[in-house]
Structures are given as C-alpha cells and as structure tokens.
Amino acid sequence: MRDNYDVLIVGAGPAGLGAADILDGHDLNILMVDENMHTGGQYLRHMPGIENKNISSIDSQLIARVTKSGIDRWHRAEVVDGTPEGWLQVIIPPNRIVDVHADFIILACGTREKFRPFPGWTLPGVVSTGAVQVLMKGNGMIPSDDIIVAGRGPLPLLLASEILQKKGRVRALLDETHALSHLKYLRLLASHISKLGEGTRHLLRVVRGKVPIATRTRVVGAQGQGKLEEVVTMKTNRHGDLLPNSKKVIPASFLAIGHGFVPNVELAVLMGCRVDYVSEKGGWIVRTHDELETSIENIFAAGEVTGVAGAQKSLLEGQIVGHSILNRLGLNGNKRQISELIKTRTHYMEFGKYVNSLTRFSQADIETVSDETILCRCENVTFGHIRQALIDGCVSWPGLKMTTRCGMGRCQGRTCGPILEELLTISGQWHSSQMKPYSIRFPVKPIPFSALCATEE
Asked: Selecting from 3.40.50.720, 3.40.140.10, 3.50.50.60, 3.40.50.1980, what CATH number does the domain 115-259 have?
C-alpha cells in the first residue's frame, strides 16, 4: 500500500469520476477514496433488479473505464483529517487509520440532505428521502409497504417514482412547493429540456400509480406512541404561511421526507480552504478560481461542494479539474477544453439556482416551528433553547454551542447546522457577509475505538 500519490480524489461520484477519467493514462499515481461500496456515488448507484435510468451509456462507460484503469480505489474508506500540506488520514477496513500524502488533492465530497424540523420528527418511522434511496439502491429493500413521501425539491418525486418502479406502494406525495415557484423559472427550464423530460417521466409514473399528490402541503407534525402512527399536515399560501383550518391527520407507519441538499464542506474547512455562504448555491460552498483550485495551492474542489446543481455540473467540474492538474504538470492539459467546460458549467449552475430556490426556507418556515420542537437531535436541544440564547445575546456559532450544546453531538452539526444557519439569516441575526462556518475539528466523522486502538502512533 502506497502512502504517497500524485493525485488523491476524495469521492467517487460524478465529479471524482470525471477527474479520474481525464487524469488516467498519464503515468500518474492516483488514489480515489470513497465511503460507498461501489464506484459511482449516490446518483449513479444501481438499484438491484431495476435499470437505473440516470445511468446513460456514457455514464456506464465512464464507470467502466475508471474501474478497469490502474487507479487505486479504496471503498468503504472515510477521510477523517487533512492538512493544507496534502496529508490525509483515512479509515480503511477493517477500521485501520492510515496516513496518505498527495501532491494534488481533489475534494469531491458531494452533499447531504437538509431538513426543517417539526414535532415528532425524531420518531421511529420518520426518515430522510435519501436514506430510503440508500436502502433500495444498496440492498434492494423497501423499508415499508405503505410510505408517505414529502418535502421539497426534485428528490421526493424521484423517490416516489423509484418506489413504484420497485413495486412498492406510496400512500401520498406531499409537495410543499407552490406552483408559482416554478412559473418564474419557465424560461430557464425551457433551456433544460432533458431535465424537464426526466421530471415528466417520474411524474407520469406517479400519476399512473394512482398516488395522491398534494401541493402546498407541509408536514407539521408526526404522532405516535414510540413509533410513527400519524402524519399531521397543513396547507400553505404562496409565502409559506400556514392556512388556518387546513390541518389534516393521515394514518401512517412510515414517512420519508427531505428539504433539499447542502454541500459537504467540512473536510475543506478543516484543511483551511476558504468557504463562502451563498444561499442560491445551497449554503456553504468551497471558494474556487475558474479552474476550481481552492484558496490553498494544489487543492481543488469539484462537484456539489462548489454549489448544488446536479450530476452533470459535477461531472463537468471533475473534468475541468483533471485538465487543470494536467496543465499544471505540463502534461498537455487542454486549455481550450477547460474554457469550453467552464462555459457549459455556467449553464448548469443556473439550473442549480432554480433547484435551490425551491428548497430555501422562508421566514414563515422557521417562525411556525414551535419552541418544543427538537433542533439538535444529538444533544436534545429545542428551538426554544436557541431562541432564548439569541435573546440573551448569543449570536455566534461558538456562543450558541457553549450555551446550548447545539452541534456538539455525534453528527457534529451536520443536521442541525444548516437549519440553525438559515434560522439566523432569516431572522436577521446574521448577514451572509459576516457569517463564519461552524468550527470543524479532527475527526471529521466519528471514529470507532477499534480504529484508534489499531493505530501504532
């Protein structure tokens, strides 16, 4: 096992694959590290027994080329630390920590889901839409034969379609989005015919499956004794305000819900890369130059960590980074190709603005959450605790953490952090130009004690 590489790619999704494909064949020692069992990331993951319509012949060929190349690939491996000098600490099976150095590092860490809490969202039977996708794609398992799918953005519709494709049952699809939210982006959508076609295909499958679709419908509560038994919903107006006398209680044993995505910038922050808060790109993003080099020399970022905008944009950015590194090494990096890719990338970034606008929380979203609702699941911190801390003068991440312990649990703020940041920006407590990301320390993700025990030094 080598401990020094020319290029180390963190993430084997579209961005990582795009970079690896460009860099391969130039006599470089390349390592790709990914948490999943297979190459392709969540978007290109194959669902057992079902053809993945997301995987085109081009995608399949890309995965095949990288898989058959001489690139070292570590799967089920997690990066838990990193330095500006190019050193990373990686946990590899079976729970062993290794140090790896690379002259160039590509951060293609992808995204995670964000959520708007509601009373009862911690009940067993309430899960994220992405978690259901992982169960189906990774294990061929539908977690329930009676699922309510809810939330914002494209993922709830996609998930409902995939459940039906897997011969499962969807009780209802609850979409919080107002139709007017789409209308103002009609001109933009007209330039993304393939995206429209993909969405229409999933919508038709849901309609043919006779799934009740309710728009402008928000989940405001989940009820049950020790597990989910009922989902409480209310209608909203175009501003996101709850409409009185619209409450409805739906018997349910399983709810899959999600409210968009946020970039995984934790490793970049830990390594010292500069980040910016840009709500139209999904929240905190890694700051990059045109050729996607970060504020630290020889560390590049590609994919959703530079802005949530989908797989095509991620693939393009991976290719941009690949050409940029080849150019830096004097290995015939195609400058003209870089310019063309950057121009095409702008096209997809515009679509990302549309998607992120659908999932951005409004003031009404935050103000209507009760004080008793849990915000930080790890430390059992409620919205009431946060609001009282703000009244007492704590308007910074360190102050809120010390006062309430919000963000100090196992997930280290991955779940509650994006919610809290939107709460503070919407309420006027923070301005995006003054915001700083919450502090990240080693380990980026929890480490098993067995891994620490196996470490020699």
From this structure: 3.50.50.60
